[in-house]
Specification:
This protein has 691 residues and is of the alpha+beta class. 35% of the residues lie in helices and 25% in strands. The N and C termini lie far apart (96 Å).
């Protein structure tokens, strides 16, 4: 594999690459050998799943060549890689496979100067090389020889001063007034002249064999190591300045090759002189490109966004200030039209919202980016007006725009528009970072859209299954509340109902196991069954028996608790039947509260022959019956008896309130309802006083 990789790279003039082998017992690609650059550069991808959204996995999964033409292409299609390696380089990934078997995959990279298109010669050369490697691996497999990782192929270190050639050459380097240092591919100093050691403030012997950002304390900053990585990957000359305490500025210029780096070190003018003068206190700081650490921080924050508006707010709070823009619009599409999902930073929202409902066929920057998935950057108003004279983008007051396609799961889910109040140049590295940010925003937005759709479905389904309003009989006042659990689909099996049959009305409250679609669907069927059995005139015990048999006939393997009562306000009583449900509370007109210890039977859905005896309870005018599900009183670490006592005290204290306000009070002051590990349903019934 090592020889095959080296030969492949030489044929197409690539400067790094790796061979992956498919694991024998799982869909995972494992890096077997690398060449050209240290393995640490690709450390996050030493072991990748076949489903991973990276080129080498895609090449193996789809059995095709994957080409990434440069920095912007990488940022747009593979933002995970662009976050870690935001440098200009091109990449090709190919499967290593025969007609019948996948053995692994290969990738090779070129410096940023490579054309954005892979030539036919390069394509043919890489394809044939991978085919030859697959045949060799097939032969080894037939011989039952295990395929193992091989030593990586890196150029030899540049050597010490004694290997520079003649003694005179070494003397010449020593006489130079500026510092020279040679770094190998791992960033270790292989040679440094006396001037370099003096400028760095470290003895030559302490430099050799070390990485400068390790052996020189004031260079111990990830930013300086990043310049070394950028130079090696892009093969572009890289420069930077660093402050040597207390006040000496040094200039570093790195000249890369495929064997390492030559670094020239010299004194630099103070930074204030470089920019003409020190910045004044009233001058706004210059815009600084988002750093890798910022990008990773933003990525972490985006994973916490739940709904679409959460994503919009987070981008406004985190991304907009970081990239130096002043306003934001997030666009999506539905039904062939553009939709404004959210915006920030505009004085007049109507100027933005006029784009809502715009057909995707309209020629505007937002629709073009959404349709093509290609970012668009407009450095000035003139540039935007020239390309889109009829639809000059977003409202007046802004002078530059970045339109970022939001692509997730291979499809566009929206467009993020960043607006700037001043003309703004977008150099290649900034475009790559912005496009990469767009990829991360897209993933968060896709999750948020799914969450909002699921949430809307859950609330719609729950609303359809529960009564839209309560119609109590004459002499009875009613109020109800329902709260879904705080995890799952925010939909559950708790239910309540008030059936206004004549001459006597009925009330029911129950709880089907679970808080998901299955529980909700079964709850709807039980509620319908109770209504039907009540309407045909069955007595309370018969309604419970019929509902129990109905649930068993469904064969759903779910149980339900239930409390059913027939109301007779004219005679001041209620007849109740209970199936494993928490006991109701009765507040008498004098304010005293007691827990009704009702006879009852097992949970519905357990025993087809179960019976449910009834209990008659007096219901004097002014009395309040509190029916509830266990989500109101049960929470981890709280004794159920203590919770019932607390609920009774609250009902006694607040029972004279209007019934709707009383329902809110009971829910608001319940510790279990605040945690909501389970659904909560409350049904309150008050017998109206005479006159």
């Amino acid at each position: 594999m090592s020889l095959a990789l080296a030969s492949m790279m030489e044929e197409v003039h690539a400067h790094s690459g790796a061979v992956y082998l498919l694991a024998a017992d799982e869909p995972v690609l494992q890096m077997a050998v690398t060449a050209g650059l240290p393995r640490a550069f690709a450390a996050p991808w030493e072991r990748v799943g076949l489903s991973a959204p990276i080129p080498v996995a895609e090449a193996a999964r789809d059995r095709r060549l994957v080409w990434v033409g440069g920095e912007e292409d990488m940022a747009r299609r593979y933002p995970r890689i662009a976050v870690v390696l935001p440098y200009p380089f091109a990449l090709a990934a190919l499967p290593v496979a025969t007609a019948d078997t996948l053995y692994g995959a290969v990738y090779v990279t070129w410096p940023g100067a490579h054309p954005t298109v892979l030539s036919d010669r390069e394509r043919a050369s890489l394809t044939s090389a991978c085919d030859r490697l697959a045949v060799r691996l097939e032969r080894e497999a037939r011989k039952n020889r295990a395929l193992r990782a091989e030593p990586d192929l890196l150029a030899a270190p540049a050597g010490t001063a004694g290997s520079l050639g003649t003694v005179e050459a070494a003397r010449m380097v020593a006489r130079l007034p500026y510092g020279l240092a040679s770094l190998d591919l791992h960033g270790r100093v292989a040679f440094a002249n006396a001037a370099a050691a003096e400028l760095l403030g470290v003895h030559v012997d302490d430099l050799l064999g070390t990485q400068p950002w390790v052996s020189v304390p004031w260079l111990n900053d990830p930013m300086y190591e990043d310049h070394y990585r950028a130079a090696l990957i892009s093969q572009h000359v890289t420069s930077f300045v660093a402050l040597k305490p207390p006040g000496d500025w040094l200039s570093f210029r790195m000249y890369p090759s495929t064997s390492g780096l030559t670094t020239r070190i010299s004194r630099a003018r103070p930074v204030a002189e470089m920019v003409g003068a020190a910045p004044r206190a009233d001058t706004a700081p210059a815009h600084r490109l988002v750093t890798i650490s910022q990008v990773l921080s933003l990525a972490g924050a985006l994973t916490e966004a739940v709904g679409v508006q959460d994503v919009v707010q987070l981008v406004a709070d985190e991304v907009v200030p970081a990239v130096g823009s002043q306003a934001l619009v997030v666009l999506g599409s539905c039904g062939g039209r553009l939709h404004v999902l959210g915006h920030r930073g505009f004085d007049d929202p109507r100027l933005v919202e006029r784009f809502d409902g715009l057909p995707l066929a309209e020629r505007t920057p937002g629709t073009h980016v959404l349709n093509t998935g290609v970012p668009a950057f407009f450095e000035s108003r003139q540039q935007l007006d020239r390309l889109y004279p009829d639809h000059g983008g977003l409202p007046d007051g802004f002078a530059a725009w970045a339109y970022l396609p939001l692509i997730a799961s291979g499809r566009p889910v929206g467009t993020c528009v960043l607006a700037y109040t001043e003309p703004h140049a977008f150099p290649a590295d900034e475009r790559a970072v912005l496009t990469s940010l767009g990829g991360m925003i897209a993933q968060a937005l896709e999750r948020a859209l799914l969450y909002d759709a699921k949430n809307q479905l859950a609330h719609g389904l729950q609303a359809a299954l529960l009564p839209h309003s309560l119609a109590p009989p004459s002499g009875i006042e009613a109020a109800a509340r329902y709260l879904p659990a705080m995890h799952g689909m925010e939909i559950g099996g708790d239910f309540y109902d008030l059936v206004p049959t004549r001459p006597l009305a009925a009330a029911v409250i129950g709880d089907v196991q679970g808080h998901n679609v299955t529980a909700a669907g079964l709850m709807g069927q039980i509620r319908t069954g109770v209504r039907a059995f009540t309407t045909v005139g069955q007595a309370p015990e018969e309604v419970m028996r019929s509902t129990n048999r109905l649930l068993i006939d469904f064969g759903a393997d779910l149980f339900a608790s239930c409390l059913y009562l027939r109301l007779d306000p004219g005679r001041g009583r209620a007849v109740m039947a209970r199936a494993g449900h928490p006991p109701p509370l009765l507040r008498r007109p004098d304010g005293r509260v007691r827990v009704l210890d009702l006879a009852g039977g097992p949970l519905l859905g357990i025993d087809a022959e179960a019976t449910y005896p009834t209990t008659e309870v007096p219901l004097a005018p002014g009395s309040v019956l509190a029916l509830y599900t266990d989500g109101l009183v049960e929470s981890p670490g709280v004794d159920i008896e203590d919770a019932l006592v607390g609920l009774g005290e609250l009902l006694a204290e607040s029972g004279d309130q209007p019934l709707d306000k009383l329902a809110d009070t009971l829910v608001r002051h319940s510790a279990a309802a605040q945690e909501r590990v389970d659904d909560v349903a409350v049904l309150l019934l008050r017998a109206e006083a005479d006159g």
